[in-house]
Amino acid sequence: MNGYMNPNPALGVVFHWLGGLASGSFYVPFRGVKRWSWETYWLVGGFFSWIIAPWMLGLYMTNDLLAVLSATPARTIFWCYFWGVLWGLGGLTFGLTMRYLGMSLGMAMVLGYCAAFGTLMPPIFDGVFASSVLHTTSGQVILLGVAICMAGIACAGKAGMSKEGEMTAEAKQSVIKEFNLKKGVAVATFSGVMSACFSYGLRAGDPIKELTLKHGTSILWQGLPVLVVVLLGGFTTNCIWCVILNVRNKSGHQYLAPTERTKEAARVPLLNNYFFSALAGTTWYFQFFFYTMGETQMGKYKFSSWTLHMASIIIFSSLWGIGLHEWRGASSRTWTWLFISLFVLVASTVVVGYGNYLAVPK
Questions:
Q1: Lowest-confidence range among 5-14, 197-206, 331-340?
Q2: pTM of the model
Q3: Residues 6 or more apart whose Cβ sits within 8 Å of residue 100
Q4: Domains contained in the chain, number
């Protein structure tokens, strides 16, 4: 596996779909957490997402992780960490988006912004957008796929807006207890723009990939050391905010207390809460575990990986939304928009994958 390996876009699409499945599913285990505040279970899950899983798999799957990071220029470490901190703001508010809009509409809005900024900005920053993308057949096909993805995201948003207009306030609250459209849209916009910073962090980590390859790491796992640094930045942001909320809401005792501090104290299932939070966090990490694998298969147009990732996340989160009855009571028109969005998003992954295939040396 070491050395040069011909890209395989079809395999890359599969890896990105697996990453999308992980991302679209990670919030589900949090539903098993009982009598913990949001900041408590978010920090516990995040500890597994951003610290435990990256380090364990990085140490196990790559060679000389500590030596590679020690040899990495400080400038590279800084930019990976910096973009991770900004991405952390997006990840932090992403959780709030789920609370206010639900999985289907929330993910559609956040990932719409995230797909646009995270896909197109890296090649523009690198100064190769015109020469390598606009003026090549494969690049033009990939851009078409990106446009199709954005159309699919718009259809998903239309489905969510249609559902919101049809449901009564009571119905919204029964499915999404803290539903708030105005607040949710504002949070989703901020979250989407900041979440795109993860793409910049991965690009900033290219020197780390080169170093780990020199140490004999497989091409498939070259992105894992980068994740260690970028996710550390995300952990910093989320940890600070969650601790602030723990102090402000006096919820810090929940990490250890077996009962609630109420007049009628109820027993808190600590073991279950830690288990489901850990499961959610670890599942979340696997989205980028598979993402870095998929990126290695996309050839010189690896920036398109971000579009594939976003499309896959929306597909699987929408399916979870259906399974969790978030679309209960929706009209046939709303269901039509939802299924159109899923079809268009699947089509976008096929088009992007084909564009990358055209660029593979024959």
A1: 5-14
A2: 0.79
A3: 106, 176, 178, 179, 180, 181, 183, 184, 187
A4: 1
